[in-house]
Amino acid sequence: MRFHIFVIGKPKLDFAKLGVEQYAGRLRPYVPVELHFLKSGTQQGESEALLERSKGMFRVVLDERGEHVVSRAVAQKLTEWEMHGPRDLAFLIGGADGHTDALRQAAGWRWALSKLTLQHEMALVLALEQLYRACTLRAGHPYHRD
Fold first, then answer.
1. How confident is the model at residue 135 (pLDDT cuts 50, 70, 90)?
2. Which residue of 14, 17, 49, 69 has the lowest C-beta tally within 10 Å?
3. What letter does residue 56 receive in the DSSP assignment?
4. Phi, psi of 132 (to 5 degrees)
5. Are the beta carbons of 93 and 122 closer than 8 angstroms?
């Protein structure tokens, strides 16, 4: 299984850059991770670029309208996908205007990190941390505490 994380725009906030480096680095011993930063544009153009770049991959769309789950459920989903699903997982994080309906409909799963609307740099750091947490849960490491 490989993670491809597609994000509209590169992080500009210093703390977000550090968070991305920290959690992407922590994830790599568990699973190959590639970060792909796409150019900002219109909502339509951004969604089309995300769809094009993630073609052939299982798409996880991060969206406030997605499913709210606990961290253990994310770990369980990763286990299911690893056992029965595609090799490449694409995590799609949109820009300031979010995703189009067409992109949401192309998702294998829509994942809400929070009921709050999150700025996309914050969403990226949170998603990476939760993916790291899920990987440590699967490996039986004590990072997660119930």
1. very high
2. 14
3. T
4. -60, -45
5. no
| Residue 55, pLDDT score | 97
- 92-114 tens-digit pLDDT: 999 999 999 999 999 999 999 99
The answer to whether residues 131 and 74 touch, using CB atoms and an 8 Å cutoff, is yes
pLDDT for the residue 117: 86
In sign, the C-alpha dihedral spanning 131, 137, 138, 142 is positive
pLDDT at residue 144, rounded to an integer: 85
Q: How many residues can be counted in the chain? A: 146
Does the pLDDT of residue 37 top 90, yes or no? yes
Q: What is the assigned CATH class of domain 2-139? A: alpha beta
- For residue 79, give every residue at least 6 positions away whose Cβ sits within 8 Å of its Cβ, in sequence order, or none: 138
Residues in CB range of 105: below 8 A, 6 or more apart? none
Can you give the pTM of this predicted structure? 0.95
Are 34 and 3 within 8 A, CB to CB?
A: yes
Strand order across the 88-93 sheet: 33-38, 2-8, 88-93, 58-68, 109-112
* Contact predicate 99/43, CB 8 Å: yes
Segments making up each domain of the chain, as ranges: 2-139
